[in-house]
TrEMBL record:
Source organism: Pseudomonas abyssi
3-hydroxyacyl-CoA dehydrogenase C-terminal domain segment(s): 470-563
Protein name: 3-hydroxyacyl-CoA dehydrogenase
GO molecular function, one term: (3S)-3-hydroxyacyl-CoA dehydrogenase (NAD+) activity
Keywords tagged on the record: Fatty acid metabolism, Isomerase, Lipid degradation, Lipid metabolism, Lyase, Multifunctional enzyme, NAD, Oxidoreductase, Peroxisome
Similarity section: In the N-terminal section; belongs to the enoyl-CoA hydratase/isomerase family. Belongs to the enoyl-CoA hydratase/isomerase family.
Amino acid sequence: MSDYISIQRNGNVALVYINNPPVNAGSLAVRRGILEAIELVEHDSALIGAVLIGAGKTFIAGSDLKEFGAPLEEPQLPSVIKAIERCSKPVIAAIHGSALGGGLELALGCDARVAAIDSMVGLPEVTLGMIPGAGGTQRLPRLVGIPKSIELICAGTRLKAEEAHRLGIIDAISIGNLADFAVDYLRTLGSKRQVLALSTPAAETQDIEAAAAAALKAGRHRPQVIAAIDTIKSAASTPADLALAEERRIFQDLRLSNDAFALRHLFFAERQSSKRLELDGVPGAEVNRVAVIGAGTMGCGIALALLQAGLEVILLEQNPTALQTGQERIAQEYQRRVAKGRLSQASAYDALARLNPTVDWAQLSAAQFVIEAVFEDLQVKQELLRKVEPLLRDGAIFATNTSYLDIDQIAEAAQKPQQVIGMHFFSPANVMRLVEVISGMYSAPAAVSTGFALARRLGKLPIVANNAFGFIGNRLYAAYRQQCEYMLEEGALPSQIDQAMEAFGMAMGPFAVADLSGLDIAWRMRKARAHLRSEGERYCRIPDLLCEQGRLGRKTQGGYYSYDERGNRQEAEEVNSLILQESRSKGFTRQAFTQQQIIERALLTIANEAALLLAEGVTTRATDIDLVMVNGFGFPKWEGGPGFWAANQPLSKLNAQQSNLAKVSGSTFKMGDLSVFHYLHNQPSKRSA
Ligand code: NAD
């Protein structure tokens, strides 16, 4: 019929193949083709019905998001679904791979759904700043009820075929050839079976409200979550045609909202980040056995991430006591997961059987890849590398999890520095998705590729960066925190700054974060770098003074805040007076800050530092910077990251604010070129609507 849709006949049934590789995105051409195919089936008296099926590796894995920033062209998906429902002959969706978003909505518009056992279905629109706009909020509740629909749609849950079958979303799991199974199923189906003709199962109000409350909390009360809940609820109270029209109207509004643009921007950024041009042609080696050295906070988290992904792990410590502590920490995590029902006891045993805790360094010879997570000290790490390297097998890679140290200096301790890279995990390493894969001056591309591939195998989001102080994330965060400290000297208090940044959407304000991670880490780093400080550099002593008083954060029951026995933060009078006194001694006249001023100054600082990173070539992709801040530092994803934020501000305003920032930030402040982010306007996520 077209390049995108082809029809094959299996006796009296039409097999309508959707062919839009790689993921059969539901684009305009696909919608047009399906519509024509349905008309053909309707008018061909030799046919009793049709099966919609994906060519290649999947059904429709989602709508074509590139279309969503511009006016949508006809036929839009609801018209295609209406045509299927109006067709006098039954139409079946045969799902393999995934049926997501518009793909599942299309399938829900069919008279039945059959699926391959390894397929996946879901409505992820809310996670992209929208709501399902082609009947998903009306048809799903008719199959699974309102509370379950709220849970699934608001979280954008992807369900495996068996679970979807159990819930009634899928009518049958296919055995053998999917197309043949679907044709047989259609022949036994007989007549039409519209989902919309069903009534929504009754539910207890308290169950609906409990599901709504949980979804609102998890979804941070974003407009798309609120809208999804209201629209799903209407499936029980409003005639279908009216509810569908209202759903479509809300979808059309939301797909052009800032949240939707930002989330689409991150979606494309992530897709792009997985394509590393400079790594192409240099495949990563497959790794199955990894040694983790150091069983502290990070070492245990990394070991857990490796075990979760099915790898064998050698966990090495310097003494049996430290090893036992680490081993217990890992075992406890598994016990916790089993107790919460997240993991079967058998899987926990299987994972722990793949863990080899040891103090015997000779065991390292079995490892293909080593990740060190020992103390953050250059000499300690260099000595470790000198000791470890001769024990390793040929081709093994040594990755350091250092936060701030110079990878090249560490590598210089090695005979084969080309085998040394950085793998910067974030805490807790078994939970956080981000891993910065650091390519040092000596690192071989194959070593970087292997680190990248390993991180992906762990289900992480690897971002490649070149070696530089703080890499991408910690460097930006250090600049942000420093600017917030300047604001303390000039007139703000920690609680005011934290509240402002939390109101913007940061998971936690900078001072609450400092208290959580411990003020001593940055203190040690500042001391180590004190000799690099130049004259005229603005230096805020407040965090040093707190450390000198033993206020190292939560671990000492106090840092910028005090903490009660339940861990709630409270303003600390003594800290606030220390800040006022420091302002006075530095000659500042304290000024009031509005929330907006705090937010803009902080964000501008991050964007400025990001522009410097790009200019210095630490990374070549502005979009990678956004991914780092969102996935590693609690930057609100619905704001798209600092680059996306900057791209959406008038450049003249940014430049004026940047000049002011330069004036208050001391003579060593460097200005970045903020126009570098404005290219983001030309990305598919940001077409004019
Ligand atoms: P930690 O103090 O909790 O653990 C370090 C462990 O290493 C200890 O158990 C110690 O016994 C062991 N160790 C020290 N020297 C050793 C040696 N020579 N051989 C074997 N074991 C040795 O520290 P951590 O917080 O897990 O940090 C480890 C590394 O990870 C540091 O480089 C740190 O900068 C980095 N990092 C930490 C975080 C974080 O949030 N904690 C985040 C990212 C990166």
